[in-house]
Design a protein that fits this description.
single chain; alpha+beta; 434 Repressor (Amino-terminal Domain); 2 domains; four-stranded antiparallel sheet; 44% helix; binds zinc ion
């Protein structure tokens, strides 16, 4: 957990609220909060102003392991989504472990996917 997230927990403020108050894009802010990307100086300035903090660049860092997992999940989602265009079920090679990532597409368009490796990629979109 980075310092910003610690302070947000302490102040009981959620990313959506912080996004509204700082007028920072929620997708971008969410990555900053979750150590997936670095903020720029302007973003730090706005966050500090809203939360009344004095965070600096050095208080932020990227959690590489988390970032890798996040990127693999995105990759997996794109692979499954592409493969499922004309099918209701199937499997693709899991980007995290190379085993089978099986999926089922429901009539309402939702896709449920799970890798055959335990505790690997799993999502419902
Ligand atoms: Zn896997």
């Amino acid at each position: 957990m980075n310092k910003l997230k610690e302070k947000m927990v302490e102040k009981n403020i959620y990313t959506r609220e912080l996004s509204e108050k700082t007028r920072l894009d929620i997708a971008r802010l969410s990555k900053i909060v979750n150590s997936l990307r670095m903020p720029n100086l302007e973003e730090i300035k706005r966050i500090n102003k809203v939360l009344n903090l004095s965070l600096e660049m050095k208080d932020f860092k990227i959690d590489q392991e988390r970032k890798n997992k996040f990127n693999q999940a995105i990759k997996a989602f794109n692979l499954v989504y592409e493969d499922a265009k004309n099918k209701t079920k199937g499997s693709v090679s899991c980007p995290a472990c190379d085993k089978r990532l099986n999926y089922v597409k429901h009539y309402n368009g939702h896709i449920w996917a799970q890798c055959e490796t335990e505790n690997c990629i799993k999502f419902m979109q």
